[in-house]
Specification:
Blueprint lengths: L2 H23 L11 H20 L12 E9 L2 E4 H8 L31 E13 L2 E12 L8 E15 L2 E10 L11
Parallel strand pairs: 1-6
Antiparallel strand pairs: 1-2, 3-4, 4-5, 5-6
Amino acid sequence: MTLNSIRQAGVSAATLALCCAVLASAPSVHAQDKMTAQTLIDRQLILDQITRYYYNFGKVERQAEESFYAEDGELILGTRHYKGREGIKQAYNRAPAAPAAGATPAGAAPAAAAAPPRERTAFNVAIENPLIIVRGDTATSQVIFTEYRQEKAGEPMRMTTQGKEYATWVKVNGQWLYKTRQIASGSNPPEGWKE
């Protein structure tokens, strides 16, 4: 090896080291203020909640959707806003509990017989590209969701819907819950969205 090639290798190594040091110390515009072990744990807990929420769809025995929200949580679907757990329950058309036997008031007509259940077909939701930013006991998240359905049992799955979820989170008694969850189509965040 010649002296000249040794010098070039040394200069290249020094330049590479300097570039790495500058990139490592440069603040990122959208990065979290400070990354800690707790931040990483909280990010994973939020991602787990999002995953559980979407896995819940299509199940016969579902966890109540409103249980994923804070008491004063809000679900925003287009121009419709559902506030509080009772409002969120209505958004999912969850039938109220059937009255106990003999609980029909005098003179009231008995409830109509329930319609036969429709054929259960597969329904899956995939989530991708999660961006979760934690700031203490609050956080924001963005994910892309894609819905896949079967028209009839045994047929292949088809992609039917894709969109984005923008959410704010709050930690309540150690559990991360949706504060707001907004569904949007397209690439633009909802008006007023802040990471």
